[in-house]
Amino acid sequence: MSTVEVHKQITADEIAHTFEDEVPKGADLGQYAAEDWLALVIFWIMALSVFLQFFTRYVLNDSYAWTEEIATYCLIGVVFIGSAMCVRLSRHIQVDLLFRYLPHLPARALSSVIDLIRIAFFGYAIKLVWQFIQIIGDERMTTIKFQKGFVYYAVLLGFALMFARSIQIAVENWRRGYSILERPGAFDGTEG
């Protein structure tokens, strides 16, 4: 049995024509939601702030103190608003091992209970963040003297988006008859 590879000689013109045959596909931006774009904008503000911090510290040898604070608060916004994207896409950590061994009816019931617990958790988190804003929302940031309430409103928005997306996912799961916990292969393309 021979393991010698056979290569066909092709010309430069043949290679060039292979690129002509392919029609470039446009980017599909329809899969992204408002929270994705908002998290992206906040991320780039954070990235520019970190770059400015680096530039002023190592190139100008005189760093701006406010850039670190802005980057920190932007990171908070990216985390909480980006978490809404993870809820929408069902990308948070979950353990589905138990669902592999449960019959359909108990698995469906448990999945619905988990959906309700998630909705209740995010609803309660909204209440807690709102109370927190009422207590310390008027405090000033250390270097730029804006109210810290702006940061906590981003956290509140993140929890509100997670709450809304949790309701949306629960309704979709109930209509579909299964969730990602019950049939993960239906969501990642591995189910035949």
Automatic annotation (TrEMBL):
The protein's name in its UniProt record: TRAP transporter small permease protein
Localisation: Cell inner membrane
Mode of membrane association: Multi-pass membrane protein
TM segment ranges: 37-58, 70-90, 150-171
Gene Ontology cellular component annotations, sorted alphabetically: plasma membrane
Organism: Bradyrhizobium valentinum
Pfam families, per the entry: DctQ
GO BP annotations listed: C4-dicarboxylate transport
Claim: Heme is one of the keywords in the record: no
Main location: membrane
GO molecular function, one term: transmembrane transporter activity
Keyword annotations from UniProtKB, A to Z: Cell inner membrane, Cell membrane, Membrane, Transmembrane, Transmembrane helix, Transport
Record's function text: Part of the tripartite ATP-independent periplasmic (TRAP) transport system.
Annotated ranges, domain Tripartite ATP-independent periplasmic transporters DctQ component: 46-176
Subunit note: The complex comprises the extracytoplasmic solute receptor protein and the two transmembrane proteins.
Similarity comment text for this entry: Belongs to the TRAP transporter small permease family.
InterPro entries (alphabetical): DctQ (IPR055348), TRAP_DctQ (IPR007387)
